[in-house]
Specification:
It holds the Pfam family Cyt-b5. With about 270 residues, the chain is an alpha+beta fold. About 20% of the residues lie in helices and about 15% in strands. It has 7 helices and 9 strands, in the order H-E-E-H-H-H-E-E-H-E-E-H-E-E-E-H.
Length: about 270
């Protein structure tokens, strides 16, 4: 008797990019002629000139230069994040926003000389020369260190050279989370952990879902810590206000029972 074999097995997904140890500007070509992949050599000066609208927006990754102009409007994190990498290498930015390494989507977009995703087109336009790649590598390394220190908040500006990972000092978390990404932390609470405690419908703080976009700032010196809040949009006459931990502890406390969910910014397109 005939048996339906069913659908063919799914194709394996493209490989995910490895988390960068430094930057992605690898040496590409030692001549001014076209490289083996048919892409011309692009001078670093040309890459730098195309870093912001209204003209073309170019970025580089792994020695290849990409035109991401059409992708700007549909970038899942918003155009402002992609603009920060305009005219330079995306390595330092991806080292901080490591959501790019939790999925194969970035490599699907960049692979094969570019591609289309979310309705936006990415196109490979050339390769960096050896000399330009080395220059960009040094600049990227300095930029990565600067971003790591800046992302540390008030207490991690003294990051050691051998331990400058911005996620090196993440806090300990409940081991029952369903973790989708650890750097930055993206974890959901299992159903059996959502409602606990005396009231039976309040999720304990340590089990509340985590949806971070950056490293958690480390407070090494509580006396120096300051939280600055920009109240200008609501209270123009007040502007920005800075609070110490002692100031925060003296503020009145209120309790509100609320149901909260993560917005899941374009999550479905990555799952």
């Amino acid at each position: 008797s005939w048996e339906n074999p069913g659908p063919p097995p799914p194709r394996p997904p493209p490989p995910r990019p490895p988390p960068p140890s430094s930057c992605s500007a690898s040496a590409a070509s030692s001549s001014d002629e076209d490289d083996d992949d048919g892409l011309p050599t692009v001078p670093l000066s040309s890459l730098r000139q195309k870093g912001s609208p209204p003209g073309p927006l170019w970025v580089s990754y792994d020695g290849t230069v990409y035109d991401v102009t059409d992708f700007l409007a549909v970038h899942p994190g918003g155009p402002e994040f992609l603009l920060r990498a305009g005219g330079s290498d995306v390595g330092p930015h991806w080292n901080l926003y490591r959501q790019h390494f939790n999925t194969s989507v970035p490599m699907e977009i960049l692979g094969g000389g570019g591609g289309e995703m979310f309705g936006g087109r990415v196109r490979a336009v050339g390769r960096l020369s050896d000399d330009d790649a080395e220059v960009l590598e040094r600049e990227c390394e300095e930029e990565r260190k600067r971003k790591n220190a800046a992302s540390a908040g008030g207490g991690r500006e003294r990051v050691e050279e051998e331990d400058d990972d911005p996620y090196a000092r993440e806090p300990e978390r409940w081991d029952g989370f369903r973790v989708h990404g650890s750097t930055p932390m993206n974890a959901e609470t299992p159903l059996d952990g959502i409602a606990e405690g005396d009231r039976g419908y309040v999720t304990p703080s340590e089990k509340f879902y985590v949806r971070n976009h950056h490293p958690v700032p480390a407070v090494d010196d509580p006396d120096r810590f300051r939280l600055t809040v920009d109240l200008g949009p609501l209270l123009p006459s007040v502007g920005s206000v800075s609070y110490s931990l002692d100031d925060l502890s003296k503020l009145p406390r209120s309790e509100i029972i609320a149901t909260i969910q993560c917005g899941g910014n374009r999550r479905g397109e990555f799952d």
